[in-house]
Amino acid sequence: MRFMMPKEKNLKKVDWEVSQKTIDLVNAYSEYTDYTENEVVEYFLSQIQEDKRFRTWAMKKRNNKKLLKLLELDKPQDGGNPVE
Fold first, then answer.
1. Which residue among 26, 42, 49, 79 has its CA within the 20 to 30 Å range from the CA of 15?
2. Cα(43)–Cα(13) distance, rounded to whole angstroms?
3. What is the pTM assigned to this prediction?
4. Could you tell me which residues come within 8 angstroms of residue 30 by beta carbon, excluding any fewer than 6 positions away?
5. In sequence order, what DSSP letters do the residues of 5-18 get, joined into one string?
6. 6-25: per-residue pLDDT in tens?
């Protein structure tokens, strides 16, 4: 069973451009799931964290402390170096 997580309240408006197709898909998925469009976008964008190639790239990037913290790669596992 997956437990519900508290809603993120640290929200900021962004100024991004996306295609009309993407807007329509998010709108339809929102209607289908009964989540808001914001919640749908937040959920799918959070899945970026699971991209193993992105995580490997982040480990190699210079000045990456903030990114590693976002990806939760800043904590050593088993007493060793951080891993993906």
1. 49
2. 16
3. 0.65
4. 36, 37, 39, 40
5. PPPP----------
6. 777 788 888 999 999 999 99
